[in-house]
Amino acid sequence: MDKTLKITSINTIIQRGTFGSGKYYGYNNFKVIGLVRIKTNKKIDGVGESLVGVYSPNLFKINLNFVSNLIINKNIKQTFDILNNLQKNKFFFDSGILKSIIASIEMALFDIMAQSEKQSLRRLFSIHFKEKNFKNNIPVYASAGSILGSLKDLKKEISISKKKGFDLFKARISLLNSNYFTKIKILKDEIKNFSIDLISNTYEKNSNFKLIQKFLEYLKKYDPVWIEEILSKNKLHYFKKIRKNNLSFSYGENFNSLNDFINLINFYKFHYINPDISHFPISDFYHLINYMRKNNLKKKIIMHCWGGNINLYNSLSLASVFEKYIKLVEFPVTDFSLNNLFLKNANITNSNYYFENNILRNNDLIKINSFKIKTLKSFTFNY
Q1: Strands 31-40 and 7-17
Q2: By CB neighbour count within 10 A (0-12 exposed, 13-18 middle, 19+ buried), where does 138 fall?
Q3: How far is CA 375 from CA 140, 224, 383, in A?
Q4: Domains assigned to the chain
Q5: In the chain, what is the greatest distance between 2 CA atoms, to the nearest angstrom?
Q6: pLDDT digits (tens, 9 = 90+) for 280-327
Q7: Among 7, 79, 143, 188, fewest CB within 10 Å belongs to which?
Q8: What are the phi and psi torsion angles at 376 (to 5°)?
Q9: Are 258 and 279 spatial neighbours (Cβ–Cβ below 8 Å)?
């Protein structure tokens, strides 16, 4: 690691843009992406992405300024040490918004390291985390839409996903919307292999146990691959009863504490966990992998990726290195034009990130190919 490579500035751009009918991706009819850019004294720029930038863009800026003051003029190793020490303060940095800020900074740091060492991101992860092997084909699934979307929207999203080669699709459904029965039937009729994200259930007032039980009884005959975010965090104690339904469940997209994920596996006995590295720092993700390695827990991770291509590329690269523990990576079938807008506004003319129809970084081209496992498709890294 180059000790003379130092951080000179950190800033963020919050991009907003309408998408589709304007009902998708957050509030006020806008799609929102929060990205952080780190500049160095050697003219190498790193770019990272934060899930907080999607849901709380104004808080993202404020908290980033606080953390950035601690790491300006520090080299990469010193910066990682500072971020690690911050997270030892369990009162403020073990979870929540500040942890998501750290996640975006770490993503940008790994980007800088990869460019400095002239390595692809997954090769850098392989070297940094001392993993000898990595896989070229990464199993992925399609993800799209909003709980506010119409039945027509859902059919269109499934059609687009199938044309792109996917045959596993995740839909977002609210039990408070009376059309959820019809949406389930559409999923089974249109694509057969599907999963369900009940993200609205993570809000306390929506986490109605009796309604959830009724829904699960109805769902059994449609055989979803898995169900996400079935309860609010404060009602997870009900999950032991829910688990008896003989369905598969995943949880954790809004978690960013290592202990929370360990509890989801050990105490609550979820079939899968779905961390998002724009919210759960890559360094902690590695600690989670080590915990799974020690306890012989394989294929327990379904990586959550909801935002932009920067998050997606990092997630695919980690899945390449830690394929024994990662079952699938979420591929959001959406318009990533806001990332292009970020690069343009930030004047990143020689960036390692380019977002077109494919994802190109340091001559790594990711494209969708068939994967010879039933119900799954994959991305392939080509060198």
Answers
A1: antiparallel
A2: buried
A3: 10, 12, 26
A4: 7-118 (3.30.390.10), 137-382 (3.20.20.120)
A5: 61
A6: 999 999 999 999 999 999 999 999 987 677 888 889 899 999 999 999
A7: 188
A8: -120, 150
A9: no
Tokens of 145: 């839409």
The pTM of the full predicted model, rounded to 2 decimals, is 0.86
Share of the chain residues as helix, strand and coil, in percent rounded to the nearest 5? 40, 20, 40
For the chain, the first-to-last Cα distance in angstroms comes to: 24
* DSSP symbol at 236: G
Q: Helices then strands (H, E): number in the chain?
A: 13, 15
Assess contact for 329 and 315: CB atoms under 8 A: yes
Yes or no: say if 310 and 359 are a contact pair by the CB < 8 Å rule: no
Burial annotation 25-57 (CB, 10 A radius, 16+ → b, else e): bbeeebbbbbbbbbbbeeebbbbbbbbbbbbbb
Amino acid present at 211 = L
Q: Are strands 227-228 and 46-50 parallel, antiparallel or unpaired?
A: unpaired
Nearest alpha-carbon partner for 249 in 260, 240, 258, 257: 240
